[in-house]
Amino acid sequence: xxxxxxxxxxxxxxxxxxxxxxxxxxxxxxxxxxxxxxxxxxxxxxxxxxxxxxxxxxxxxxxxxxxxxxxxxxxxxxxxxxxxxxxxxxxxxxxxxxxxxxxxxxxxxxxxxxxxxxxxxxxxxxxxxxxxxxxxxxxxxxxxxxxxxxxxxxxxxxxxxxxxxxxxxxxxxxxxxxxxxxxxxxxxxxxxxxxxxxxxxxxx
Length: 204
What we know:
Layout: E1 2-7, H1 14-23, E2 27-30, H2 31-38, H3 44-50, E3 55-56, E4 59-60, H4 62-70, H5 75-101, E5 105-109, E6 124-129, H6 132-139, H7 147-155, H8 160-166, E7 169-172, H9 177-191, H10 198-203
Parallel strand pairs: 1-5, 1-6, 2-5, 6-7
Antiparallel strand pairs: 3-4
């Protein structure tokens, strides 16, 4: 089973690319969705211990946590030390399930794929990318998003040009949706020719 790492900075079009994979019958693990689940489950007591007052009613209060992190330069490292191992466990369960189903390809959609070193555990990396103006325009349309928050998020992510340079494939999402899908279709056809190694080496 070939493991694909799908990544890109905020607002670059990861969700749209992931949806296209799903439409083609390929299972996708959404790391962001996993974190949302953890914030209402297993991660709650650990986050409350590390960031007192960041939870309430049995779940993480994302607004309070964001305020704490804005004032705590080392907070993100402590948070990642809690969350990332839990996400990795969920990824392993997902991949094992897909392997047992006989899937030929499985996708891990991970925003911080390079930043967390997860690129070492996949066979191939696809980066979605567009220009910074388009990126900012998309992100600032989200409820509650500000330029300050966007700058903070981008500062924690590997520069887009470095991601593009390290990627096996790059999809330009700044053009039309049909063009982006066509680029993805071309990549998907090429994936069939690759020899999978990552699952047996890291996940089985």
